[in-house]
Design goal:
The chain is α/β, with parallel strands linked by helices and about 260 residues long. It contains eleven helices and seven strands.
């Protein structure tokens, strides 16, 4: 019976990934051109495309829940539903983190790897949504600040990649530069995947026997200035803010109780 359940979960995951890839191609050549045609400008077209992407990701999350693969435990969800022009910073334990966050944050923009723009399945999706490329560091900070100035939530994973299970958090300074340049409120989101699944070191078909729970906890918003108060006044601000963010996330993850 355990083998049958494992095979079932693998089949559900494979079907979801295949559906996402096929939908990405179909939307690129059908839905998104139609959205551009009926929109009055590029901004409206991107906003409508993000609505389509969000509801598609909500459908994926629902199927994974129905299939017994993943259960999302959302805490303080109103902070995400009303994110507005906030810099949403989250740790990155799982491949599905961005799917879950976009599914729960209306009109969210995220920073994506430049390679994804050339991906035959998802390139059209990230371009239609007006997401931000990460291939030009100097331009990246300005583009992120401009997106926040337009009132859109911006999702960034300060680690830059998924964390290996049990490894300490190591943030890069890009998120701190964006926070300082934009002066936007920081919305920390602490993610925990219990037991670990879709990790940096694992394979997509290595599913926990009983599925896994992704805990998504939206913490109280905070400003960069408040985080810097615990740092030395003479410290370089991006470096100091990065250290403060690492401590904020690490302290919450270390103090979290396992979910039964």
């Amino acid at each position: 019976m355990d083998t049958l359940r494992r095979c079932w979960r693998i089949a559900v995951v494979a079907a979801c990934f295949a559906a996402m890839g096929i939908a990405g191609v179909l939307c690129r050549f059908t839905l998104f051109p139609l959205v551009r045609l009926i929109s009055r400008d590029a901004a409206q077209s991107q906003r409508r495309s993000r609505v389509c992407i969000r509801w598609s990701f909500r459908a994926v999350v629902a199927v994974l829940d129905w299939g017994g693969v993943m259960r999302v435990d959302l805490r303080n969800g109103e902070r995400l539903r009303n994110a507005g022009a906030a810099l949403v910073l989250a740790n990155h334990p799982s491949y599905l983190d961005i799917v879950v966050l976009i599914a729960h944050i209306p009109d969210a923009v995220c920073v994506v790897k430049s390679a994804l723009w050339r991906n035959p399945f998802f390139g059209g999706v990230v371009r239609a949504g007006g997401y931000v490329r990460n291939d030009a560091p100097d331009k990246l900070v300005a583009d992120c600040a401009a997106s926040l100035a337009e009132g859109k939530p911006l999702i960034i994973f300060p680690e830059g990649t998924r964390t290996a299970p049990g490894a300490p958090l190591r943030f890069v300074r890009g998120a701190a530069h964006v926070a300082l340049k934009s002066a936007a409120a920081i919305q920390p989101v602490v993610l925990r995947c219990e037991p670990p699944a879709f990790t940096r070191t694992g394979h997509w078909y290595e599913q926990p026997p009983g599925g896994f729970r992704l805990i998504v906890e939206a913490m109280p918003r905070i400003g960069a200035a408040a985080l810097l108060e615990s740092e030395r006044p003479e410290a370089v601000k991006p470096r100091a803010l990065t250290r403060a963010l690492e401590r904020l996330f690490s302290s919450h993850l270390e103090g979290a109780q396992p979910v039964p």
